[in-house]
Amino acid sequence: MESGNRKEPSGIGIKGIGAYVPEATLTNSDLEQMVDTSDQWITERTGIKKRHRASPDQATSDLAREAALRALDDANLRPSDLDVIIVGTATPDMFFPSTGCLVQRAIGATKAAAFDISAACSGFLYGLSIAEDFIKTGKYENILVIGAETLTRILDWTDRATCVLFGDGAGAAVVGRVGDGRGIISTFMASDGSMGDLLKLPAGGSRMPASEATIRNRLHYVKMEGNKLFKAAVKAMANAATRVLEDSGYTGEDLDLLVTHQANLRIIDATAKRIDIPDEKVYTNVHEYGNTSAASIPIALAEAKRKGVLKHDMLVELVAFGGGLTWASVLMVW
Ligand code: UT7
Questions:
Q1: N or C: which end of the chain has fewer CB within 10 A?
Q2: Whole-prediction pTM value?
C-alpha cells in the first residue's frame, strides 16, 4: 500500500471472526401465506429472498455464544484470554443482566468485563470503534465484539411493512493487535436523535411500561416509517462511507471490498455508487439473511472470509446505519 499523506493502520484489528445463524428459515413464499405480500414486491424493494429464524428455545445470547466461540476458534484464543466483551444488540435476552454478561457466563470468559451497547444496526461498528480505542490505551489486549439479534421476536406478523424485512443471527470478532501494516485505519460514528421516531419499539421501557393496553395496541413490536428511513439511510450511509476514506487519504477506487449493513439492496447500491466502487467489490448477502441489524456486518465478514472473498492485506470498508438514528464506518487493512 502507498503511504504519502495516507493514514497508516493502527496495528489493531480483527484477529478472528465467526458467525451463527439459526437453521430454520422463512422464505418470501412462506410470508405470502402470512400477510398480503409477494415474493416480487419483497425482492424488488429489498433484495431479500429468505431470513433465518431462532427456534423458540433460542435467545439472543444463545446465538451470540455460538458466534463468539467460532470467532475465538478463528483467532486461536480461549474465552479466558478475553479482557472485554461488547455486545451490540437491539434485542437483548432481557433488560438486565446485559447480553454481554450472559455471553460471558455462557463461554466462561472469567476475566472479561462485559456490557451491551444500544446503537441498533450500527452496534457492531460502534463496538469495533470502542474496542480499538480501548486497546490503544494499553489497558486491554483482546476484546470480543458481537452483533447479535433475534428480531423475529419483536416483529408484528400482521404488519407487512416490517415483518418481511428482518431476520435472526449473530456475528463476532476478536479485536486485538494484528501487527504493523494491518488493522484499523479510521473509524467514524454519528447519531441524530431527532429522527429516532422513524424506527422504534415504543413500549416495555420506562416511558411506557408493559400493560394490558400496550399489549392490546401492539406497542411491543417494531414500528417503522420505511420510506422516510430509506431516505435518511441513503444520506447517512453516503456520509459514513466518505468520512473514513477522506479522513485517511483514500478513495473508493482504492478499496478491495465494501461490506455494508445489509438492510436493503437499493441502499447498498446507492452507497457503493456514492464512493464509486464497482459491484464486484461490494459484498452482499441480504438475499439470504434479511436485515439482521447489528449482526449483519460480522455475519457478512465471516461468510466472505469462509468463501475466500475476504483475504489478508485487503483494504476493506465497513459502513452501517440504523435506528437512533445512528451511523458509522470503519476502514481497515484485513
Ligand atoms: O436497518 C436499518 C434501518 N432500516 C432501513 O434502513 C430500511 C429503510 N427502508 C426501506 O428499506 C424501504 O423503505 C422499505 C423496503 C421498507 C419499503 O420500500 P419503499 O420503496 O420505501 O416502499 P413504501 O414504504 O413507500 O411502500 C410502497 C407500497 C405501499 O403501498 P401504496 O401506499 O403505494 O399503495 C405499501 O403499503 O408498498 C406497500 N407495501 C407492501 N406491499 C407488499 C409495504 N410493505 C409491503 C409488503 N408487500 N411487504
A1: N
A2: 0.97
